[in-house]
Specification:
This protein has one domain: Immunoglobulin-like (Sandwich), CATH 2.60.40. It has 1 helix and 7 strands, in the order H-E-E-E-E-E-E-E. Strand 6 and strand 7 form a beta hairpin.
């Protein structure tokens, strides 16, 4: 027996938008006098799957992990490694030098170096 909603869908196909689901990755952050270091855990993601955007004081990181394929001629019997997309949005409360931000992916860890802007660095003031 089918419910009324299912009958209606059979008569007129319903198109639904596909919703993107992201997982929030684990990350660590640390600070020095010159800048910040952010390490984001993104297992199975290579550098072509990473997108980083920086606008005003927000750092937006998206990492996509593609489904692994077996060798040609082989058929998968079981897949337990999930296809996951990660997204992390960090709001920074100090100005950083956006043109000097660097990023690299190695062994499933995305490392970002965010140098502080000159006006955010501590200064020593000489007493006269």
């Amino acid at each position: 027996m089918k419910c009324e909603v299912e009958k209606r869908e059979e008569q007129t196909p319903v198109q639904t938008a596909q919703r993107q689901v992201y997982r929030k990755p684990w990350f660590t952050s640390s600070e020095s006098e010159d800048g910040y270091l952010v390490e984001v855990y993104v297992p199975g993601v290579n550098k072509s799957g990473v997108e980083i955007a920086f606008e005003e004081d927000t750092l937006d990181i998206t990492a996509r992990r593609t489904a692994s394929k077996g060798p040609d001629g082989w058929k998968a019997l079981r897949r337990e490694i999930p296809h996951e997309d990660y997204r992390l949005r960090l709001h920074l409360n100090v100005p950083v030098a956006a043109d000097k931000i660097s990023a690299r992916v190695e062994d499933g860890v995305l490392t970002l170096e965010l140098p502080k802007a000159e006006e955010a660095k501590p200064r020593k003031i000489a007493v006269s």
